[in-house]
Amino acid sequence: MTQSRSRPGLGIALYFGAMFAAGLYFTFAAVQGDYGLFREAEIRAEADVLRSELAELNHEVAIMDNKTRRLSDTFLDLDLLDEQARDVLGLIRHDEIVVR
């Protein structure tokens, strides 16, 4: 009797092919998917931009709070009041020269 060597079946080749394709899919999704590494880098960069914008806005709010306090009834800064009147109303004194 002659024994013939049997080669692996087609099912095993399909199984390994499917596993390889699934591995490629999950690798691609981990890198470029909605929750992948590239998206995470984009989110971190956007968060840094928003943090700097928040710091800038907090600084502007602090300036406005300072001006509001200086123009309040309890503490009146006459120089700031004069500056605001000139800026908003366009007032000048008769002894001043306006340069534009």
Fold and architecture overview:
The protein is mainly α and 100 residues long. The protein has three helices and no strands. It is rod-shaped, with a radius of gyration of 36 Å. The mean pLDDT is 87.
Shape: rod-shaped
Oligomeric composition of the shown chains: single chain
Mean pLDDT: 87
Outline the biggest β-sheet. none
Percent in strands: under 5%
| Number of distinct helices | 3
| Radius of gyration using CA atoms only | 36 Å
Pattern of helices and strands: HHH
Helix content: 55-70%
Task: Supply the helix-strand structural class.
Answer: mainly alpha
Q: Termini distance?
A: 112 Å
Low-confidence stretches: none
Question: How many DSSP E strands?
Answer: 0
In short:
This protein has about 100 residues and is mainly α.
Features:
single chain; mainly alpha; 100 residues; rod-shaped
How is the secondary structure organized here?
Layout: H1 10-32, H2 37-70, H3 78-89
